[in-house]
Write a structure and sequence with these properties.
rod-shaped, single chain, DNA polymerase, domain 1, mainly alpha, 0% strand, 104 residues
Length: 104
């Protein structure tokens, strides 16, 4: 009789521990998938911004990426930026700065 009670308690405990483990695994999966969605949205957002920066005359893929990485997120911020700030960005030269300043 005691062994029957003990076996029932063991089976009950093993069932609850399994359900708790599966709940934790499911929660981790949900969290990871939410993080992946955020990463994808950031990547697509940055790609869209870089595409708009490429619309400026003289700005190609590499210089648009450099400008984006330097903190210039809009075409207006690039056009209104100081020449020294633009020249500090790697991949941006004097000729490009002249083209951008002629847009004012």
């Amino acid at each position: 009789m005691f062994s029957k009670i003990l076996s029932k308690v063991k089976s009950f405990l093993s069932k609850t521990s399994v359900t708790n483990e599966t709940t934790l695994v499911n929660a981790k999966k949900t969290t990871n998938s939410a993080k992946k969605v955020k990463r994808k949205s950031k990547k697509t957002n940055s790609k869209k911004i870089i595409q708009t920066l490429k619309a400026l005359p003289g700005v190609g893929s590499k210089s648009a990426k450099s400008l984006y990485d330097a903190g210039f997120k809009t075409t207006e911020s690039i056009i209104s930026a100081d020449e020294k700030d633009l020249l500090a960005v790697p991949g941006v030269g004097v000729n490009l700065v002249k083209k951008l300043k002629s847009l004012k």
